[in-house]
Each structure stands twice: as C-alpha cells, then as structure tokens.
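Look over what follows to help learners.
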Amino acid sequence: MINRSDISVSIIALGCSKNLVDAECMSTKLREAGYKISDSSDDSEVVIINTCGFIEAAKKEGIDAILRAGDLKYGFNGSRKLKHIIVTGCLSQRYPDDILAQMPEVDIVLGTSDYGRIVEAVDSLYSGSEDYAKKYDCTPGGMSHLMSDRDISTSGYAWLKIGEGCIHRCAFCAIPNIRGKFTSRPMEEIIDEASHIASKGFKEIVLTAQDTTNYGIEMYGKRMLPELLGRLSKIDGIEAIRVLYGYMDGIDEELLTVMKNNPKVVHYLDIPIQHGCDKILKSMRRRDTVDIITNKLNMIREQIPDIILRTTVLVGFPGETEEDFEELLSNLKKWKFDRLGCFAYSPEEDTPAFDMPDQVDEDVKKERVKRVYEAQYPISEASSQKRVGSEVTVTIDSVADDGIFYVGRSYGEAPDDDPVIYVAASDGELEIGGRYRVKIVETRDSFDMTGVSL
C-alpha cells in the first residue's frame, strides 16, 4: 500500500505557456491523489521534468535539466533524497527511446497525450516491483488531462488553453508531430474553467493555443473565437481577456469588431509571421505573402488604432540569401511591430526543411539575428516612448526585487516575453492581481516603463 502523503513530488515546467498549463494539471492531479507537492527538486523524492522540444535550444535546456536532476538522484551534490525522475512533454514525445537508452537516470517517459496518467506513473514507482512501464503510449497531443479547476502557479493572471496541436504544416516546425493535428477544446469546458479561474480572484485570463484565431474551425465548422470572447466577457470577475498566437488567415472583420467593441478584450495580438520575403515564406510553406501581411496589418490598425502588435521571425532558413534577408529587414521597418522576437533556424528531424539544400552557416544565422534586433530597437523604443504620459489600467503581478516598485502589465504587455511596467504606489499598498489606473512617466533602455498609480 502506497502512503502517498509521505512522498514529495516536484515539477519543473520548461518551454511555453501551454506546457505550463499541462504541468499545473499534473500537479493538481498528484495533489488530489494525496502526494505532497514541493516547490524544489532539492527537497523531493520524485521530480517530473515537463520538457520542450521545439528547437535545438529547447532540447538542450531539457537535457540539462535532466542531467541536473540526475546529479541529485546519484548524490553528486551530497544529497540523495531524490529517488526517481519522470520526463514528460515534447522532448519525451520526440525521443522516448533515446532518453531511456542514453539517460539511465530517467525512470519513466510520458508523451504529450499521457499527462493524465501521471498519478499512475508515480504510483508504479512505489509498487514494490521493478517491472513498471518505462515508456507510456507517446501518441501526439490530447487534452483529456485538462481540468476546469486546477492549481494555478502564476500570479496576477492565468493561462487558459483553448486548443492543442496545429492546423498548419510549416516546413521548419515539428509541432504537428509532437502535439498532433489541431483540435479545439469544447467551448463549454473553456467557459467552465474560466469561471473557476475568476472564482479564485484572477481578473486577467490569457487564451493560448498553437493557433487561437482558428479556434473552433474543425469542431464547429467555422472560426469561433469571436463568440468565445463574447461568452468569456460575461463571466463576473474577469476584467481582461488577452489573445495570443494568432495567424493572419484567422484575423478577420468579425474578430476585430469584437476586439474593438468589447471592453474586456485587450487591444493586443501576437501574430508570428516568420518572414518578410515571399520566396522564403513559400519555401517555409506559410500561407501568407508580403501583401497579405501588409493588408492585414493595415486593416488591424485601421480598426483598432491603439493596438499593440507582437510578432516572431525566423532567420537563416535554408536558401535564405542576403537579398532575401534584406527584404525581411526592409519590411519589418515598414510594418513596425511594437514587439518582436527573432530566432535562428534550427534543423529539426522529420520536418521538410531538415534535408533542404543551401543550409545557412551558423555564424551567418547569428549575425542576422543580431541585425534584426538592431533594426527593431528604434521601432520598439518609439512605441514605448509614445506611451509616456498616457494613463492605462495595469494588472499587478508581483513586487519588484528592490521592494519599492510593483511589477505589472497594461493591455500592451503580455506575460513572459514583453517589457513590464514598474509601478510606484501613490497611496497605500497595491494588491497582487489587482488592476489599477497608472500614469506612465518614463521608459527604460529595455523598453520597460515606470508609472505611478492614480
């Protein structure tokens, strides 16, 4: 008989917001089963590492985390409390056999459809038999593990997953192999979870999926994000709804009308365009063209003039010439995204681009990443400067390390990747998770801003 209350388990969540939601669901299931949840792997008998495996840097981060846990397990740091390591998520979905063969410190691997079996997996480690399953099903994707009432690890806001997998088949991307085909989560489940989130005092929810703008298209036969936003906005307690990771083909007049007229839907979109040269976009198997991107951006800004737009671009894709790259830079200067992330192409097994000819030299990739950020810097700086003197509603996420300022975000700052607003309280203490009117008084070199509560 397993005495679960004597066993401490910690979870390390790597990668994206979707991975964090999966980790939060596993933590909740283990806690409800009676296991003790620890904040530190140093103080745990079992550590679960929920990995990312999207690009080379993410794979390295996951491997490094496993190796560090192995040091704890084998007592290389002087302690041997850690007994078992379970690896879940994208890396274990892609390479389950390699992990088990090359990393003997790992006891069990679970794929992206196996999160719901986490209690079963931990139980098996204490069954008294060494004949437990080391590898679970590892079928791509799945949402059966998602919970309407889960333990939320973020402060100030909560992520809300509305879909899994991807409808697109970009030449560079392994996500469809890892997470499966795009599947929307039933709307009633999303509404139920949002109601639970609101009941816990969270005022801001962030909708996440690999492609939020195509939500509902395979389940309901049409894009249902506008209707979902309308229903979410009716939940008492929810004051801000943010949409992340959209695609140009899913942004239409109906969605923009809802964003424009619904005061709870923040004027912010994250639209990964990946490139700004038609030749490379076609080679990447993207549906967009430079004209489509230009026209959509014009439409968005015409409908919602104060919108903040973020994008991601990928440089060094096979066949990208200096001329192609210069076209990307030229268009980025025209498009003027407020925020931008840039990555160097990473060859990923089992993707069409892996064996493409004309692979770009690594040093050239690094240099192009640098040049993208150099071109973007004045654009982001001007975007931040433009907001000095404005009054915005800020969600307070935490207290700054200096203990003087609070750290928060307005409609123009998404969690994790964007700048923050440092808020000085003009009268009394501010509540974590609370939303306050703030006047922005200055910007910093990092594009972070400073404001004073009103």
In short: The mean pLDDT is 94. The two ends are 58 Å apart (CA to CA). The chain is about 35% helix and 20% strand.
